[in-house]
């Protein structure tokens, strides 16, 4: 019994993950209760509509959501993708859409993924796919040119214009499917609008956009 207890304590010590944000030890699932509370929910109505396509955002880009996105993008904390996708899923369930979707996301230019060592949006899409059961399609839309990060661009629409390309063969395969475009943050909506235009130009008409966060 003593031996078993020792092993359990040892395993807890090894596998116990501290809070991703504040590093405290009182954690259930990557976050402590205090950090988990520091999220600001948005309503389950479309926050924007572009060419009849609804754009939903789950949380305000602040508090723990902002910290988790930054940890995932800039600090190589891949576990943040699990927490963020769970939070996105909690919101998605409230929308009560009752449909199957193909998940796509704004691909980063290959050099960016290469220098980071991973494509953070792909990780998010994969984790979200595990929760929803929806397929991720990473070959439908490609980023074909390097662009400044949107938050640094003077004109966000101009910066992103013409930077995505649809694979027409793949698009043909999905023309009768519902497509769910996910992204981490939306500010001006320029990236999502660009992707929506690419999809509509290729007869992908059943679209919904869902972002983890929205700046205010
Ligand atoms: Zn914490």
Write the layout of secondary structure elements.
Layout lengths: L1 H14 L17 H5 L10 E3 L2 E8 L2 H12 L5 H16 L6 E3 L5 H7 L3 H13 L2 E2 L4 E3 L12 H5 L3 E3 L1 H6 L5 E8 L3 H12 L5 E8 L2
Helix pairs in contact: 3-4, 4-6
Bound molecules: zinc ion.
Q: What do you see in this structure?
A:
This protein is an alpha/beta fold. The protein folds into 2 domains: 1-37, no CATH class; 39-214, Rossmann fold. It is 42% helix and 18% strand. It is built from 9 helices and 8 strands. The strands form 2 sheets. It has a 6-stranded mixed beta sheet with strand order 1-2-8-7-3-4, sandwiched between helices. The longest helix has 16 residues, at 80-95. The chain starts with a helix and ends with a strand. The mean pLDDT is 89. The structure holds zinc ion. Zinc ion binds at residues 19, 21-22, 24, 31-32, 34-35.
The bound ligands are: zinc ion
Q: What does the largest sheet look like?
A: 6 strands, mixed
CATH topology of the largest domain: Rossmann fold
Can you tell me the residue ranges where pLDDT is under 50 for at least 5 consecutive residues? none
Question: How many strand segments?
Answer: 8
Global shape: globular
């Amino acid at each position: 019994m003593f031996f078993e207890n020792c092993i359990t304590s040892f395993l807890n010590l090894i596998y116990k993950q501290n809070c991703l944000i504040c590093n405290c030890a009182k954690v259930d699932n990557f976050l402590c209760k205090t950090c988990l509370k520091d999220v600001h929910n948005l309503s389950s109505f479309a926050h924007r509509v572009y060419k009849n396509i609804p754009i939903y955002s789950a949380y305000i880009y602040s508090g723990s959501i902002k910290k988790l996105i930054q940890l995932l993008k800039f600090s190589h904390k891949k576990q943040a993708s699990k927490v963020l996708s769970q939070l996105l899923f909690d919101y998605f369930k409230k929308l009560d859409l009752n449909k199957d979707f193909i998940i796509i996301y704004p691909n980063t230019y290959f050099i960016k993924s290469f220098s980071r060592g991973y494509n953070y949006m792909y990780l998010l899409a994969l984790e979200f796919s595990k929760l929803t059961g929806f397929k991720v399609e990473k070959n439908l839309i490609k980023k074909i040119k390097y662009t400044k990060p949107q938050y640094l661009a003077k004109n966000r629409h101009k910066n992103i214009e013409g930077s995505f390309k649809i694979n027409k063969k793949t698009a043909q395969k999905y023309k009768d499917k519902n497509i769910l475009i996910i992204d981490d943050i939306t500010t001006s909506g320029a990236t999502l609008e660009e992707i929506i235009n690419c999809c509509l130009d290729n007869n992908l008409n059943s679209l919904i956009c869902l972002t983890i966060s929205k700046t205010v």
